[in-house]
Every structure is written in structure tokens, then in C-alpha cells.
Description:
Keywords: Aminoacyl-tRNA synthetase, ATP-binding, Ligase, Nucleotide-binding, Protein biosynthesis. The protein is mostly helical.
Amino acid sequence: MIRTETRMGRSLLSHFLVLSQSSPRFTPSLRSFSAFGSNRSKAHSLFRLHRSSIGNSSQCCCSISVTEPAASERPPSSIKQRIVSGVQPTGSIHLGNYLGAIKNWISLQDTYDTLFFIVDLHAITLPYDTQQLSKATRNTAAIYLACGIDTSKASVFVQSHVRAHVELMWLLSSAAPIGWLNRMIQFKEKSRKAGDDNVGVALLTYPVLMASDILLYQSDLVPVGEDQKQHLELTRELAERVNYLYGGRKWKKLGGRGGNIFKVPEPLIPPAGARVMSLTDGLSKMSKSAPSDQSRINLLDSKDVIVSKIKRCKTDSFSGLEFDNPERPECNNLLTVYQLVSGKTKEEVKQECENMNWGTFKILLADALVEHLHPIQVRYNEIVSDSAYLDEVLAEGASKASSIADVTLNNVYQAMGFFRR
């Protein structure tokens, strides 16, 4: 699951995708993630080499060539592949969370077996407001539904309501080398900023919880953006490591079915950019933790606030508007946002806007944002006013998720040699 910023940016693979308005053309399987073959001894010998690549990576990049899994590895067409994803409940859900993750779930739920959860356990890795966590969790669930998540197609639940997440994390922690976690880029960055005395163990180990979130549901695919690629690498390595240490004949001798304990998930890569950038800095990702609220459009911002933020957002002094000019990051970002909320193609936006000045375009963009977000805001208010309905949705989602998670957890306990319950 997953998906990045101090408080909210660690959302599980949270902040994962940006889809075009056409049907999704995802291509699962980063070639670098397919390093481990079926030979277990080969897989084990590659752990050290692959692990070192995590520590030496200076940046994450999703512009890697991708290939489809072999046809023989695909499940029968009648069986949907499973996807899990989620967002942290800290802070306000903003346009980056929506366009980068939640909006794309709407398309995914029609094609895949989907589980979308509110990752509240990840929200406590850094200091947080205990008085707001519960309310923010409910509000985040309401936003999921308001954006179009259909509970007849997808399970929506709260992470902490499925206790198997924490149990599996502990079991995986016993197999996760400390060196792997020390090399995680986000941990190094955030611990450096916070200082050792203010950093809890959870900040170091939350990638193991993230792996648990994914592996618990035998996920086939994980929506992954640029800043979450390293976490998925760790998840895949942990799955391979546990399969090697405890699966196969070892598990069968303990009464299990043998074979792999976990599916090794593949990345679900977007066909285009995976990030929505800040309104005040086109080189920085839109973030809940940014000091200025001016840097982001929150999903629940009023019309006047949206218009004001767009009017004041950073632009440049070039003539005309264009995509993909590295010297114009703000221009590319704002055009991309307009493309996504207007439902137009990149070529249509290019032809419409290439000769516009910034004043004219900002009015166009603000109007498109208000029009796109208004129905979501209306539906959100309806949902949060019906607490019984929301409680029912979350309880049903947790029940469905638990029925899947418990099977995986029991298999892990058995394969690791625990006395059967």
C-alpha cells in the first residue's frame, strides 16, 4: 500500500499517481524490481547487491522503462488483480493528494479488486495532535467517498481497525536488516531535520509497516509515485527474504501449503507525471507540511480562497504558456493541473493556452478548479452529516479487509513456527 513530506507525505504510497483523463494505461513491473528469479538461492545471494542500491540512490525516478509481466504469470481474466493504497489523515487533503492518488482510484476500482484505507498508524511517526486524529480520520474517509470511491466496488477502512497490520509488521521486523532501514532516504532526511532526541523508533521502522500494509493483502500491484519507489523496493525485498527464509519446503514441513508466503507486488506506474507541485515553488511537491497554506489548494477550500491562491501563485516572465520546459516548472505544473481538472488532453490545453498571458490563464484555471471541486465539497458535507452511514461503511470495509488479512497473517505465523492458535 504506502506514498514525501514530514507529516502527511508519508502517506502510503500516498501521493502516488496522476492519471490522464483517458482510460488508465498503467504498465506494471519496473525491470529493476524483477531482479529476483524463482531460484531461491539466487534470490538470497542478490539481497546484498540489491540492498546496496537502496542506500546509494541519490533520487527516486519513475521514468524507467517498464514491461508487462509475462503472460504466464498473469491470473485468469476472471480474477481481478488486487491493489491497495491509502492516505494519511494528518492535515488537510489537498489537490496533490487528490490528483496524485484519490482521483485515480476511481478508475482503478472498476478494473481491479481494490482496498483503500486511511493510514492512521503512519500518522503518529512524528508529533501529532491527539485531539484531531480521530476527527481527521473520519473526514479523510468522507473525502474518499465524496471523490467517488464506490463501496460496492472497493473496501474503505481505517488501518488501525485491522490489527493484522501491526502484527505482521512485528513479524516482518524480525526479518528486516537494520541496515536496510538506515539507508532509507526519507528517514535520513527527516531525522536530520528533527534531531535524534525528537525522533521516535517509528520513524525508522514505518517502512516495515508500509510493507505490511501491502503484503498483508497479497497485493498484485501498488500505485507508486516517484518519492515512494524506494519503499516499494524494500517491500519487495522483504517479501523475497521472508519467502526464502520461511517458505517453500520449510513451510510445508510445518503443515503449510509450501511455496511463497507472499506475492511480490509490482509497481503500477503512471503514464505521465506523478507529482503536483507547490503553488509557490514549481520544484517542490505540493505538501501538507509546507508552512504556507498558499502553497496548496485544499479540497475543501472555498471558491474565494481558491481564486485568491491562484491569483497569487508563482509564475514566470516568459511569453506564452508551454508544457515540459525545464526552465518553467511553475508553468508546466499549472498547465498540468488545468489539464487534469478540465478533462482535456495535453494537446488541447497546449492549443488553447499557448498564446495566453498569465492573467487570463489564472482566471481560466481558478474557474476550472472551482467547477471540479464543488460537487466533491457538496457530497462531502452530506457524508459527514450522516455519521451512522460513515460508521457503517468503515465497519464493513474493516470486516472485508480483516477476512483477507487474517489468512495471510495465520500463514506467516505457521511458516515462522509459532504454536497454532
